[in-house]
Structures are given as structure tokens and as C-alpha cells.
């Protein structure tokens, strides 16, 4: 518990007080946000706002975690190290994307396929490492089964280790690219992605702590409901560090934002979210816990699919929304940016509460 509180507090302190320095630095480096001409006109006033603030979040979270472990006299666990690896690995992909944008002064950085390739490379390394390093009980950071509240009886290695490894890598890559791009798409309004990420990643503080309290290696009652998860408390500690870093950053990122997280932040946080779901063995539950990211990503898929279908059938592409992602649709409907952000935060909170609620109900009733 001491490491958990220390990780969150240290990470928040660093991001809260270091961010103004990075704002000054990025302004001098001219690392300003480039605004799309076809976006909402109200966003044109944001042109030049310092971006790549995700560097602060990722640094604060990483330092917060390691210092908390040092204070508590503990060694870092393999599960937490994998979460940090995923966060920093995807953060690097986002940094390259951001740097190309600010260097060339345009809204496009890496091509879509190049960005996906970078995400998959990180996901493959994560997948290979996550099936190694068993603890004294033989538990590895990830399992070969697909999980919801715990592992389901769906083993990807049922057809042998070669095919199974291929299926496992494909499954992990799907989770990682979906979660990271979901957070990336939501990062379009001041504070929307950072505030939503606080709630979604905060859910894994609760889940990790509860799995630790109900670990099969320690409980003597309710054995049918106990959890076989490696390093659950340390998963909660690293999640707390990321939440603390996001809280400190949100102080400067809320409307009117003085800094944006950029792809380095959104891809890094999305990667961390996917990694937390994998090592806590709640992969499918992520669809509900990250519900707001699913909704905004779904709006983009619906918009593009409908446009292509109507263009193919009638020659003229039609749109479901005034603009996608969905938050821009409501801006063009006349909602104030702050109104959109707060209402989307409410949806994010309801999704997280529903996810944690179902997780707890499954522990009680075993549904």
C-alpha cells in the first residue's frame, strides 16, 4: 500500500511542477501543435500550442514507479516492467510521429501503416516476453488464454505451440493497436484523453489491489473465486504511477490547454492500458473500462464505412456525423468544447464504474 500511494504522489508531483518547464522548453524549440484546416474553426486559435507533453507523463510515471519501489525496499516485478516497456515503446513511436509533424510543420507524421508497424513491433516483443519469467508458482505475466474477469476456457495454444504463438501474437497486437489508437483518436479536445485515461487506468489500481487481496496464493476462503495473477499489487502500483502523472499533467492540459500530450502521450497511455488489461487477465473487460475510447473510435469506423459504401453505390459519399471523431460532431452542433469534454468524461466514468462493478459481481456470484 505504501508503494502504491508513493508511486501516485511522486508521479503527480513531478508532472505538476515539471510541466511548466517543458512548456517553456517546447516553445523555445518551436514544438507547436499544427492544426488541420478542415477541423473545427475554433481550433485554429490552438495553433502553435506546445505539444509532445506526453514526454512529461511517461517520464513522471516511470520515475514515480521506480522511486516508490526504492522507498519500499522492493525489486520491480516483471509484470510492471512489461507495462512500462509497452508504455515507453509506443511512446517512442508517437514521439517519431510528433517530431516529423513539428519538423515539417504539417498535420501528418508517420504514414498510417508505418505507425501500425511500429505498434506491432512493440506488441510482438511484449508478447514473447510476457509468456516467460514464471514466478515460484509457475505464473507468467500473461497467459495463453483469452480473459474477461479472469482466464476463460479459450486457450490459444490448443492447436500446438507454433500455431498458438502466432495466434497469441496476433491477439496481443490487436489489443495493443486498438487501445493505443483509441486513446490517440480521443485526443482531440483539451483534457479529453488525459481525463478519460485517468479513469480507465485508475480502474486497474482497483482491480490489481483486489486481485492481490484475493490471490490464490494467500486466501484460505472462497478459493473458487481467488485469482491466479502474477504480481497483482505491483500492477496496481504502476497503474497508480501513470494515474498520478496524468493528474499532474491535466492541470495544464485542461481548457484552455497550455500544452498537448501529442501522439507520444496518447499512444503511450493506450499501450499502458492494453498492457494492464493483459497482465491483469481482464482483456475483454477493457472494452467496457475503455468504453469512451471504443465509442469515439467506432464513430470513425462508422463514418468512413458509410461514406465509402454510399460513394460506391451512388457516386456521392454521405456522412453519418457532421465530422468524426464523435467529439468534433458535437462541436459542430454548437456545443462548447468544455461541455463536450465534461459530458464525455461522464460517459468514461460510467463505463469504468460498470466495468469495476461487473468485475466485483463476478467475484461474488462467479458469473
UniProtKB/TrEMBL annotation:
- Which top EC class applies here? transferase
- Asked if the record carries the keyword Repeat, the reply is no
Q: What keywords sit in the KW lines?
A: Cell cycle, Cell division, Cell membrane, Cell shape, Cell wall biogenesis/degradation, Magnesium, Membrane, Metal-binding, Peptidoglycan synthesis, Transferase, Transmembrane, Transmembrane helix
**GO (cellular component) term, any one:** plasma membrane
CDD domains named in the record: GT_MraY
Transmembrane regions listed in the UniProt entry: 6-26, 47-67, 79-100, 112-133, 156-177, 189-212, 232-252, 259-278, 284-302, 340-361
Q: So where does Mg(2+) get bound?
A: 184, 263
EC number(s): the record gives 2.7.8.13
Q: Does the keyword Magnesium apply?
A: yes
Signal sequence, start to end: none
What reaction does this catalyse? Answer: UDP-N-acetyl-alpha-D-muramoyl-L-alanyl-gamma-D-glutamyl-meso-2,6-diaminopimeloyl-D-alanyl-D-alanine + di-trans,octa-cis-undecaprenyl phosphate = di-trans,octa-cis-undecaprenyl diphospho-N-acetyl-alpha-D-muramoyl-L-alanyl-D-glutamyl-meso-2,6-diaminopimeloyl-D-alanyl-D-alanine + UMP
Q: Which cofactor does it need?
A: Mg(2+)
The places in or outside the cell where this protein is found are: Cell membrane; Membrane
Q: What does this protein do?
A: Catalyzes the initial step of the lipid cycle reactions in the biosynthesis of the cell wall peptidoglycan: transfers peptidoglycan precursor phospho-MurNAc-pentapeptide from UDP-MurNAc-pentapeptide onto the lipid carrier undecaprenyl phosphate, yielding undecaprenyl-pyrophosphoryl-MurNAc-pentapeptide, known as lipid I.
Per its record, how is this protein called by name?
Answer: Phospho-N-acetylmuramoyl-pentapeptide-transferase
Protein species of origin: Aquiluna borgnonia
Q: Upper taxonomic classification of the species?
A: Bacteria, Bacillati, Actinomycetota, Actinomycetes, Micrococcales
The gene behind this protein is: mraY
Amino acid at each position: 500500500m505504501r508503494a502504491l500511494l508513493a508511486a501516485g504522489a511522486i508521479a503527480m508531483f513531478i508532472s505538476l511542477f515539471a510541466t511548466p518547464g517543458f512548456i517553456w522548453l517546447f516553445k523555445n524549440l518551436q514544438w507547436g501543435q499544427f492544426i488541420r484546416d478542415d477541423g473545427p474553426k475554433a481550433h485554429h486559435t490552438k495553433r502553435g500550442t506546445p505539444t509532445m507533453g506526453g514526454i512529461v507523463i511517461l517520464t513522471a510515471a516511470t520515475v514515480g514507479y521506480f522511486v516508490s519501489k526504492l522507498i519500499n525496499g522492493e525489486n520491480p516485478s516483471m509484470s510492471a516492467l512489461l507495462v512500462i516497456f509497452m508504455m515507453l515503446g509506443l511512446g517512442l513511436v508517437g514521439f517519431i510521429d510528433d517530431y516529423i509533424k513539428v519538423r515539417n510543420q504539417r498535420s501528418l507524421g508517420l504514414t498510417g501503416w508505418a505507425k501500425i508497424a511500429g505498434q506491432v513491433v512493440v506488441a510482438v516483443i511484449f508478447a514473447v516476453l510476457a509468456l516467460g519469467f514464471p514466478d515460484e508458482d509457475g505464473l507468467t505475466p500473461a497467459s495463453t488464454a483469452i480473459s474477461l474477469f479472469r482466464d476463460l476456457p479459450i486457450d490459444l495454444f490448443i492447436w500446438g505451440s507454433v500455431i498458438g504463438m502466432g495466434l497469441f501474437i496476433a491477439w496481443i497486437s490487436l489489443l495493443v493497436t486498438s487501445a493505443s489508437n483509441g486513446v490517440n483518436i480521443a485526443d482531440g479536445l483539451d483534457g479529453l484523453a488525459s481525463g478519460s485515461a485517468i479513469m480507465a487506468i485508475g480502474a486497474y489500481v482497483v482491480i490489481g489491489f483486489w486481485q492481490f487481496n484475493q490471490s490464490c496464493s494467500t486466501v484460505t476462503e472462497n478459493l473458487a473465486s481467488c485469482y491466479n495473477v502474477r504480481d497483482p499489487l505491483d500492477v496496481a502500483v504502476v497503474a497508480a504511477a501513470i494515474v498520478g502523472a496524468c493528474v499532474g499533467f491535466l492541470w495544464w492540459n485542461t481548457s484552455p490547454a497550455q500544452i498537448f500530450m501529442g501522439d507520444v502521450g496518447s499512444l503511450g497511455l493506450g499501450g499502458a492500458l492494453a498492457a494492464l488489461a493483459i497482465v491483469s487477465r481482464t482483456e475483454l473487460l477493457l472494452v467496457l473500462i475503455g468504453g469512451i475510447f471504443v465509442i469515439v473510435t467506432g464513430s470513425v469506423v462508422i463514418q468512413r464505412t458509410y461514406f465509402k459504401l454510399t460513394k460506391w453505390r451512388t457516386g456521392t459519399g454521405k456522412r453519418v456525423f457532421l465530422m468524426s471523431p464523435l467529439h468534433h460532431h458535437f462541436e459542430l452542433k454548437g456545443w462548447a468544447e468544455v461541455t463536450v469534454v465534461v459530458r464525455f468524461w461522464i460517459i468514461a466514468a460510467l463505463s469504468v464504474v460498470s466495468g469495476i462493478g461487473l468485475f466485483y459481481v463476478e467475484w461474488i456470484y462467479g458469473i
